[in-house]
Amino acid sequence: MSEIDTWVARQRERAAHLPGAALPWLTRRRADAIARFADLGWPTSRLEAWRHTSLAFLEQQALAAPPSDSYPDAAHPAATLAALRAAFDDGGHWLVFVDGQFAPTLSVIGTLPTGVTVSALSEAFNTAPDAVEAAFGTADDSASPYALNLALCGDGAFVRLARGTALEQLLHLVFIGATGAADSHLRNLIVADANSEASIVEHHVGGGATLGTVVTRVQAAQDARITHVKLQQQDAQAIHVAQIEAEQARGSHFASHSLSFGARLARNDIHTRFDGEGCETLFNGLYHVDGRRHVDHHTLIEHAMPLGTSREYYRGLVDGNARGVFAGRIIVAQDAQRTDAVQRCDNLLLSKLAEADARPELEIYADDVKCAHGATVGQIDEDALFYLRARGIDEVHARQLLTYAFAAEVIERIAHDALRKHARTALLARLPGGAMLEELL
Amino acid sequence: MLKINNLHAAVDGKAILKGLNLEVGSGEVHAIMGPNGSGKSTLAQVLAGRDTFTVTDGSVDWDGTDLLALPAEERARAGLFLAFQYPVEIPGVSNAYFLKAAVNAVRRHRGLPEYDAMDFLARVKAEMKAVGMKEEFLYRSVNEGFSGGEKKRNEVLQMALLEPRLAVLDETDSGLDIDALKIVAEGVNRLRSPERSMIVITHYQRLLDYIVPDKVHVLSQGRIVRSGGRELALELEEHGYGWIDAEGKATKTAAGARP
């Protein structure tokens, strides 16, 4: 039996026990998904989109089954959560998942405005099956890891914003890996009706040597405003493979902030499609990798309709023997006249052996558009370094300061004060000399 | 007292300073003038410790210290200040952070207590007022999007805050209109003191109408070829650098002719 068959057999064995197993449509989609995964196998470097990030090694990986309904080290998730909540002065709504399962005792959902639903997907299968079905997605066109996600996921967040509602406080989705020996598969569904507004933060922490797949689907109806922030700070052995899929209706605004600091291997596929006129999107990203770690962002912005505006800014800090990959694609369809798109990806190599690949791709089929893109891979600016040293700042500190400053530009685009501060602290914790910088900032 | 003796410096194997001698006493202001490519900026950068330049011969003694043996940051802490011809933009680093880090690095070295945030703000705001800089420049990134004049004012502000013993001003007048030039010159004049020496590098004598030097030197092809009082600058204004270049070439030929 090949290793792919092992995954397939495990799915079939698990399927009957997964939340939502009683829903015929879900059972069908899961079966289709595992068939697709079995057909495709793990992506290898032979596929263009996975050229730099083969997952073929997972075929050899023997991953333990997830724990049953309790997790062994109960103190770890509680402590992790307490630290996180303290950074936000205990404000906001907190939906917590441990090793891929909803943790109701840790979750704290404050008073929600009428028309706003926040629940675990495992509950929503029972309470709102029709809405879940409509938002769940299929694996028909998915890359194989996301097909596997659909086949194996039993939990995640389900967020529904009725027309005109606004979630004023941040909604935090906290994903904690506690046992370090499980794989987890999560799916988050965010359904935003017309004119609604929310900011949703995914925190990914812990994880040990876990494989985690996460799919987050966002549907933004007319004039909805959704901000999605993902802060991935997993353990240095974790494997994180994630997709964000957004669909935007006329006049909607979607912002994706992806901060990738942890994990041995992190892959993010981020995609939005403008299905109506006058949509706006911001893709803002920062990654830091060191040692032998690897990070890959593949993004796609589809300007399918006119008058859309997209801004994409990615920055990478690549140290040690690490590798940072960015591939950003923007498609401007023939009908998408008066599109305004800007894409940039800049990388700072912090060691001789670090490697960064930045590939911008613009496909423009309309004729009245304004599009600009650029990508750089470089070292710290020697002129700036000398300028700081000529003012008495020692070279080590000057380098740290310039490295931080390079990355901080991405963080400054996060509008929410406490969140921006938290992201800044997370970045400083990664950088040598961060403690000293924090004191002075 | 600064003593530069037979200084030779090269960049990428190309000799630029070729035996420069200069002495600047305490409290003196010396102007160094010269045509483009004569080595003026190289001299400034070598004194400040830029390692893209290689010192191939000669020495610089600064009150008994071998200046060339110190890395750039130690020279700055010991009281050397270079006002850059092209101040560098540093996106993401606020001017306030930068100024505080610089001032405290220097104060630590001098055994003075570091400023806390309140004291520092009070001090920096007073100095900003003196050079006519708006407070908003504190919270903007270092030099980013500053006009030419604003950048030069920021340099003078740093000089005032760092209280150097030796200030080297590299073409501080370049790119300034007359009003900006006056403000910058006033800032510099305010800092003249018996303990502080200054080397003012300029292409034009115009600046010397506002910063009146004790001595004027003419640099040509990597050496000082003429030294004199203020009148030398006026002479250059009248005759240009042509005659200096001719003289420089003659000297070189003569030197080359020797076995």
TrEMBL record, chain B:
Superkingdom of this protein's organism: Bacteria
Entry-linked Pfam families: ABC_tran (PF00005)
CDD domains registered for this protein in UniProt: ABC_FeS_Assembly
InterPro entries associated with the record: AAA+_ATPase (IPR003593), ABC_transporter-like_ATP-bd (IPR003439), ABC_transporter-like_CS (IPR017871), FeS-cluster_ATPase_SufC (IPR010230), P-loop_NTPase (IPR027417)
Residue ranges occupied by any ABC transporter domain in the UniProt entry: 2-246
Single annotated GO MF: ATP binding
Keywords: ATP-binding, Cell membrane, Membrane, Nucleotide-binding
Record bears the keyword ATP-binding: yes
UniProt similarity note: Belongs to the ABC transporter superfamily. Ycf16 family.
Protein name: Fe-S cluster assembly ATPase SufC
Annotated organism of origin: Thauera propionica
